[in-house]
What we know:
There is one protein chain. By secondary structure, this protein is of the alpha/beta class. It has a domain of 189 residues: Isoleucyl-tRNA Synthetase, Domain 1. Strands 3-2-1-11-12-7 form a 6-stranded parallel beta sheet, with helices on both faces. A hairpin with a 4-residue loop joins β4 and β5. α15 runs antiparallel to α17. It is elongated and about 90 Å long.
Amino acid sequence: MSKGTFYITTPIYYPSSKLHIGNAYCTVATDVMARYKRMSGYDVMFLTGTDEHGVKIGENARAAGITPQEFVDRIVEGQGGIVELWKLMNISNDRFIRTTDDYHKSAIQRIFKALYDRDEIYKGTYKGLYCTPCESFWTETQLVDGKCPDCGREVKHAEEEAYFFRLSKYGEKLTALLQSGYLEPRSRVNEMINNFIRPGLEDLCVSRTTITWGVPVDFDPGHVVYVWVDALFNYMTALGFENDRYDDMRFWPADLHIVGKEIVRFHSIIWPAFLMALDLPLPKKVFGHGWLVFGGEKISKSRSQGKSVIDPLILAPRYGADALRYYLLRSFPFGSDGDFTNELLVSRINSDLANDLGNLVSRTVAMAEKYFGGSLPDTRESGEFDSGLIEIASKLPEIYETYMEKLAFHNALAEINRLTARANKYIDETMPWALARDEANTARLAAVLYNLLESVRVTAVLLSPFMPESSAAMLTQLGVEENRRTWESVQSFGGGDYKNVTRGETLFPRIDIDREMLELAEIINEATR
Length: 529
Ligand code: MSP
């Protein structure tokens, strides 16, 4: 029975150039949450996509000597493009929106007109400072050292006739919204209120006359809709808002928008204000995650540091998407910045996956085969050490759920690892190989292996949102049917039996770290040459 709908989104990515591991981090996290919600019984809609308009993309296309549409088509759907990357990373999105899709563009025109008709948008003259790469207007006071507060780059003076959205009138309502738990982590709430709302919100410029690559304002030729209006409404047009392409508005309001911290402002101030202006229901939650940094700098499309960080299109096939997904979410608390290093990636794969988890699975399965031909007898005798292991395994789903609901992925994984470690210790404590020497111990040996197989099963099910392929491979080795691969089935320990345990391929081969570092250095050299 469904627990109801759950609508979750990633930001839509700028296809101004290829995506990097920082973008993958955001999408993987959203995918994990979507898979977790599906597993726990929700009717999930998971949306991702691309934000294809704007100055930057127009410029890049010109530099490449092709039309903007050709340019974005290549980056989105071409070889090594975004769609391919998400496939490779095992992203389970239900829908993919491109803001150049016709249904979206015409919906944006209708939305813009509706805002204008309600007098939420008016015509005026824009004078101010503009950061081209961020597509953001700033006031003098918002600049940091005279530069864009988001990216630290130069801003330039701009003056033009433009439409403005009456953002300034929403300060109070937005403060109340932010204080109500709309935005997480909580630490970002004060930042929004103190830096943006308290100094006074200014009306927002929502059209441009100097650019052509965007959605035209249909009732005023020459004006193009500001890219963030175009972008933010993707979350609704992809469900069918103001268009006939889809009919899924039952998923609105969104349950969770996952966004990087630099675009929290757009999602927690501008986006709800637009919705308030149209009297539409507001999303339930926005979560602003931290950045992957490399040598202290944000990994980004435009900064050169990006080149020293290896392309996820290379990393995923090299280590397996599951291992990469695991590394990203186990290593860094989701709300904070995390320092990406290749050493940490490889050493985590070795320690957590190859040594601890991989060993537990292979030892357990091998022993079930060796001592019982893969089919455990029904007579089992409990004994010393069982309760310690069973207690951890029994309590794990609830603890895991608490962390997952808070998007504390690294904690959820750490708890799973505690069970793995406990199960490995249980093997040392119970010494199945010693029990196997005497037939009188058969029932005890069966119980030990049963408890281990159950622990592996619980582990595999809870890991499934993070490592879908490895989890399925583990459950196949255990020989368990669909009904024992479910969230409900891990709410209690024991109950089923193990009659068809079969060894499979090594899940996570150990990596020779020294050799690997040399090879990765070579890949970086090639990329930066
Ligand atoms: N197009 C806008 C979003 C519009 S949403 C209505 C945009 N695109 S982006 O391609 O620049 O960034 C997309 C997402 O990738 C953002 O959430 C951003 O935080 C995330 N990341 C980009 N670099 C990142 C890291 N180095 N680390 C983690 N996430 C990063 O903004």
